[in-house]
Structures are given as C-alpha cells and as structure tokens.
Amino acid sequence: MSENNSDLLVGLFIGGLIGTALGILYAPKSGKETREDISSKANELLVKAKDAVEKSKTAYEEAVKLLKGLEISAKEKMEEVKSEVYE
C-alpha cells in the first residue's frame, strides 16, 4: 500500500472520529451515555478502517502478482524475438 493511500485512510479515520465525537457531544444525553456512544462509534470506525486497510493490502498484493506475471511474459517474449532475430 502506498504512503498516499495510508495517509488518506488515516485522515478519513481521524476525520470520522472527530465528526462522530462532535455529533455525540452536542446530543442531549448524560455524560455516561455520551462516553459510551463515543466509544462505540470509535470502535465501529476502527473496524471499518481495519477492513479498508486489509482490502487495500489485498489489492496491492494482487497487483504485484499480476505485474510479476507480466514481467515474466515480457521477458519470455523478448527472448523469443531475440532468438528469431539472431538465427
């Protein structure tokens, strides 16, 4: 996963936490209920962030595998052409 993608995920996670916290803090509830809500929403966002990171990691690994396969194919084709030219 590239650094830009990781920065984006961190930014989205932090922004989500801040937005959730502000929304909960301005809701008319007791302090205990508010803390429970904040904790619950933070846990939900953490799970979503972990899922996003895992999906990104999987996509990255698949892309690397595909590129390695293409590299091998290109090298094989290059060797074929080279042998035809020098025969």
How would you describe what is shown here?
The protein is mainly α and 87 residues long. It has one domain. The protein has helices at residues 3-25, 31-85. The longest helix is centred in the middle third of the chain and has 55 residues, at 31-85. 0% of the residues are buried.
List its salient traits.
about 90 residues, mainly alpha, about 0% strand, rod-shaped
Q: Helices, strands, pairings?
A:
Blueprint: H1 3-25, H2 31-85
Helix pairs in contact: 1-2
Short description:
This protein has 87 residues and is mainly alpha-helical. The chain is 90% helix and 0% strand.
What is the rounded Rg?
24 Å
**What would you call the structural class?**
mainly alpha
Strand content: under 5%
The largest pleated sheet is described as: none
Low-confidence stretches: none
What is the number of strand segments?
A: 0
* Overall helicity: over 70%
**How many helix segments?**
2
